[in-house]
Design a protein that fits this description.
about 575 residues; alpha/beta; 26 helices; globular
C-alpha cells in the first residue's frame, strides 16, 4: 500500500504508532418501516429504554471523570445530558411513533433531521455549531437501538502491537472520549477539531498524542492500516515504510525515556540558568486534585475552578452546594496543600458551563450573563461562596480570584460584598484571614486595556489566556470551523500580554498566567522573556514546563523576545518563537 500523510492541527504532544481503529458514526439511513397499532407502545418503550441507557452512560462517565480532567469536559457532558432530556429530542420522536406508526429509529432520525434543518437556518455561528452536539447525542441513542455501539479492547495483557490502536473518526463526542481512558489506545486522529476542541482537551488530559482537523482522515484511512501520529506536528502518516516506522519508533522510545527523567525534577527548584526563580503552580477542579499537584511538586494552586462544586455529583446541578459543603471543599484543598497558597476562583458559570435553571436562551452565552456578571445577578449565591472561601482562609494561605472583570463598578461591588461577608462572619464568631488577597482575572481585552482600574484596587492579576485569545480574536474556541484562527501568537494577543506584565511590574503587583499558554512548553521561554514569573497549569504539564525553565537563559533570550514583540508578521513571529525553543538560543 502507498504511504501518505495527512496534515492537521497539533493538540497533544508525543508520538504514537499503531493500527487504525475506525469509529464510524451511527448510520442515519436507518431502516424505515411501519409498526402495527398493537406494537406502537412497545416501540415507544424501546426508544425510551435507549434514552435511559444513554442517560445512565453519560452520568457514569461524569462520575468517573479523571481527577485532572479539564472543567470543559464536565461541561460538555452536562450539555449532552441537557440535550438528551430536552422535549424536542426526548418526547417528539415518541409522538411521531404514536401518530405516524414509524419504527423507533425512523422516528428519531426524522426528528433529528428537522432539528438540524432548523439549526442550519440560524445565522449566529455559535448556535449553528451546537447542532454537532445534537448529532452526537442522537448517534449514541441510535447505536443503542441498533446494537452497533463500538468499543475498544479493554486494557489488559494484550500483545503490545495489538494494544497500540490509533482511534480514527470524523469527530469524537466528549462522552466517547472519556470512555476511552479505560481502553487500550495510543493516539487519536479526527477530521475536525481545533486546539481547544473537546477531543484536544481530553487528549491532553490523558496525555495521548493527537492530530485533529485532518479533513478526510476517516475516509482515507482504512481499518487496521498502520498509522503514525506525530502530535508535535499534527500529522498522521498512513502505511509508513519500514524505514519510517523504525525511525518513529526510535523517536517514540527516546521521548518515553525523557518523560521518565522528568520525575527526577520534582524537588528541583524552578530556577533559570541565570538564577531567576519561577513559581510553577497547578490548576485544579476538586480538592482531590491536590494530590496530583503535590506529586509533581507544585508551589501551590494557581487556579481552583470552583464551578465544579456547583455542577453536582450526578452530572448536573440538582441543588446548589451549601456554605458548609463549599467550606469543607475549600478547607480540604487548603489543608492538602500543606501551607502552599491556594487561589480560588469564584463561580465562573456561563458559556459552555451551565447550572440547572441557568438561562439557556442567550444568543451567545460566551458574551452573556457569565462569571462575575452572573454572581452580581445572584448576590446571595455569591455571598455564600465568599463566606465559605473566607472561612477556609483560616486554615492556610488563600487568595480570591474574580473572573471576567471588565468594569470598575464590578470591582466596587465585589469589594463591597466581600466586606459584607467579612462582617457577617465576625458577627457569627467565625475565623478568617482578614488580609486575604483578592485578584482580578484578565481575560477580556477591555480589562487588559484599562489595567490601572484593577491594579489600583486589587492585590494581584491572573491572565486567563484561553478566553483572552477568544475575545481578542472574536473566535469561538469550541467551533472547529474557525479553530485554525485561534492563535496564541497573534500580534494582538502578544501585545495585550506584554502590556499587562509590564504594567504589573511597574506597579509592583504580582501577575500570573493560568490559561493554556502557561502549560505549552513551546511558549515557556517566550513568557519568561516577556517578564512572567508565575505560571499555573494542569499538574500533568508542570514537570515539562519546569524542564524548559531550567534550560532557559533569560539574558540570552531577552533580545529575541523583544524582536518578537516588535513584529506584526505572524509567520515571522512563529519562526522566531521556534528559535527560542532551540538550545543554545541563537540571538
Amino acid at each position: 500500500m502507498a504511504s501518505f500523510s495527512l496534515h492537521g492541527i497539533p493538540v497533544s504532544r508525543g508520538i504514537a504508532v499503531g493500527r487504525a481503529h475506525l469509529l464510524t458514526p451511527a448510520a442515519l439511513d436507518v431502516k424505515h418501516y411501519l409498526v402495527g397499532q398493537t406494537q406502537v407502545e412497545a416501540e415507544v418503550r424501546r426508544l425510551q429504554n435507549a434514552f435511559a441507557v444513554v442517560h445512565q452512560e453519560l452520568r457514569t462517565i461524569w462520575e468517573e471523570l479523571p481527577a485532572d480532567a479539564p472543567p470543559e469536559l464536565g461541561a460538555f457532558i452536562d450539555i449532552h445530558i441537557l440535550i438528551l432530556s430536552d422535549p424536542m429530542l426526548a418526547d417528539a420522536p415518541l409522538n411521531i411513533i404514536r401518530s405516524r406508526h414509524y419504527n423507533a429509529e425512523w422516528a428519531l432520525v426524522t426528528q433529528i433531521d428537522e432539528l438540524i434543518a432548523q439549526f442550519d437556518e440560524i445565522e449566529d455561528p455559535y448556535l449553528r455549531a451546537r447542532k454537532v452536539d445534537i448529532q452526537q447525542v442522537a448517534e449514541r441513542v441510535l447505536k443503542v437501538l441498533t446494537g452497533t455501539a463500538q468499543l475498544l479492547p479493554p486494557n489488559g495483557d494484550e500483545d503490545a502491537a495489538q494494544a497500540s490502536l490509533i482511534v480514527v473518526a470524523h469527530d469524537i463526542s466528549p462522552a466517547d472520549m472519556l470512555q476511552f481512558r479505560n481502553h487500550a489506545f495510543a493516539g487519536i486522529a479526527t477530521d475536525v477539531g481545533g486546539q481547544n476542541s473537546h477531543t484536544a482537551l481530553v487528549a491532553r488530559s490523558l496525555d495521548v498524542p493527537a492530530a485533529v482537523g485532518l479533513s478526510n482522515a476517516s475516509l482515507l484511512i482504512k481499518q487496521d492500516d498502520w498509522v503514525i501520529i506525530d502530535g508535535d506536528a499534527g500529522v498522521a502518516i498512513v502505511n509508513p515504510s519500514a524505514l519510517m516506522l523504525s525511525q518513529y519508533r526510535e523517536m517514540q522510545a527516546k521521548l518515553q525515556r525523557e518523560r521518565k527523567k522528568l520525575g527526577k525534577l520534582k524537588k528541583t527548584p524552578a530556577v533559570t540558568l541565570d538564577g531567576t526563580a519561577v513559581t510553577l503552580l497547578a490548576n485544579i477542579e476538586l480538592p482531590e486534585d491536590c494530590a496530583a499537584a503535590m506529586e509533581v511538586g507544585a508551589s501551590g494552586i494557581g487556579l481552583f475552578r470552583s464551578e465544579f462544586l456547583f455542577m453536582g455529583h450526578s452530572g448536573y446541578a440538582s441543588k446548589l452546594p451549601s456554605e458548609e459543603e463549599q467550606f469543607d471543599a475549600y478547607r480540604r484543598a487548603v489543608v492538602a496543600m500543606k501551607g502552599r497558597p491556594v487561589t480560588i476562583r469564584t463561580l465562573d458559570i456561563g458559556a459552555d458551563k451551565r447550572l440547572d435553571g441557568f438561562d439557556q436562551t442567550a444568543i451567545n452565552p460566551a458574551l452573556g450573563l457569565r462569571a462575575i456578571r452572573y454572581c452580581m445577578a445572584e448576590p446571595q449565591l455569591f455571598m455564600t461562596q465568599l463566606r465559605a472561601i473566607l472561612r477556609a482562609s483560616a486554615f492556610g494561605p488563600v487568595k480570591l480570584l474574580i473572573p471576567m472583570l471588565s468594569h470598575s463598578f464590578e470591582v466596587t461591588q465585589t469589594l463591597s460584598l466581600l466586606n459584607q461577608a467579612k462582617a457577617q462572619l465576625i458577627k457569627a464568631g467565625q475565623k478568617f484571614d482578614d488580609g486575604i488577597k483578592i485578584g482580578a482575572m484578565i481575560e477580556v481585552p477591555a480589562a487588559a486595556l484599562t489595567l490601572q482600574t484593577f491594579i489600583r484596587r486589587m492585590d494581584f492579576l491572573s491572565i486567563g489566556t484561553n478566553d483572552l485569545i477568544q475575545y481578542t480574536l472574536a473566535i469561538d474556541r469550541s467551533d472547529h470551523e474557525v479553530a485554525h484562527l485561534y492563535d496564541p501568537l497573534h500580534p494582538a494577543v502578544l501585545l495585550l500580554l506584554a502590556m499587562t506584565v509590564a504594567a504589573a511590574a511597574k506597579a509592583g503587583i504580582p501577575v500570573s498566567i493560568c490559561g493554556g499558554m502557561a502549560g505549552d512548553t513551546k511558549l515557556t521561554r517566550l513568557l519568561l522573556g516577556m517578564g512572567f514569573r508565575e505560571l499555573s497549569m494542569p499538574p500533568a504539564q508542570l514537570l515539562s514546563v519546569k524542564q524548559e525553565v531550567l534550560a532557559c537563559d533569560l539574558e540570552r533570550i531577552t533580545p529575541l523576545v523583544r524582536k518578537i514583540l516588535r513584529s506584526d508578521d505572524p509567520s515571522a513571529i512563529k519562526q522566531l518563537v521556534g528559535q527560542l525553543a532551540e538550545a543554545p538560543v541563537a540571538v
